[in-house]
Design goal:
The protein is α+β, with helices and mostly antiparallel strands. Helix content is 18%, strand content 39%. The protein has one domain. The longest helix has 15 residues, at 2-16.
């Protein structure tokens, strides 16, 4: 019963995962997201809305696109919707862009911005 084993491993990994949860973010907060292949800048502009630059967005003339973040995934079809960013996972944006593996997160609270 390989499927049950894979599902239990996925559940354990999900409960052990650490990262930035959407409930922890405030309007104006900025995340610098360093993936395996790119750097993304994500600014909270409204409830569950983000202005995104870098990586795919800059390469496709979509710098500053306002979109959602669906959640984080290990690359399969299962997605952790509570997370906006989690190291070791990929970020899926609302426009279906899926990043490479996230390596580092830098969070800059809105209060620290000039």
């Amino acid at each position: 019963m390989r499927l049950a084993h894979e599902l239990s491993a996925l559940v354990k990994n999900a409960s052990d995962a650490r990262g930035v949860r959407r409930c922890e973010l405030n309007l104006g907060d900025v995340l610098l997201l360093y993936t395996q292949n790119s750097v993304y800048t994500v600014r909270v502009v409204a409830q569950d809305r983000f202005s995104v630059s870098g990586g795919w967005f800059d390469q496709n003339d979509s710098h500053g696109l306002i979109t959602t973040i669906v959640g984080c995934t290990w690359g399969g079809s299962s997605i952790h919707r509570d997370f906006v960013a989690s190291c070791g996972m990929r970020i899926e944006f609302g426009n279906r862009v899926l990043t490479s593996i996230l390596k580092r997160i830098v969070r800059v609270p809105a209060a620290a911005m000039n």
